[in-house]
Amino acid sequence: MVREISAGGVVVRWLAGVWNFAAIQPRRELLSAAPGAKKKSPGGLLALPKGLVDPGEKPDQTALREVREETGVTASVITKLRDIKYFYVRSWGDGERVFKIVSFYLLQYESGRIDDISQEMRVEVHSALWVPLEEASVRLSYKSERDVVRQALAYLQSHPELATARPK
Q: Residue 28: what pLDDT?
């Protein structure tokens, strides 16, 4: 059985008096193979930015890189939130069963413009946008990612000083 290790981030930004997070709208053809995806979400299918850990890279570095590549923004690590583990069967190539672990980190926005991503990345990501954190439970397409964002919100509520922290 193949094993994949990935990392991703819940990038948060305090905008207009509420926490927002960076979400991506993956290309639809990639979603048809994704395990656990909802059939429909209000406003389209949304996910958190994430990707495979490169050789020699630490998971938190991967989360920062994937966020930059898939959303156009840079961020810094606040804390690790959790690991998500699941199995899926590849719908391309060999059709092999894969055990996947994704480490998610809570990240604070530093700079950049949402959706300012390369043309090469547009093959994977249709668009990136800021979404109010309170809407995650109805907007995100994957239950495990909705759970991660709930955990991020709880962390932010217990650390109100983060709302007034300025990006570097």
A: 65
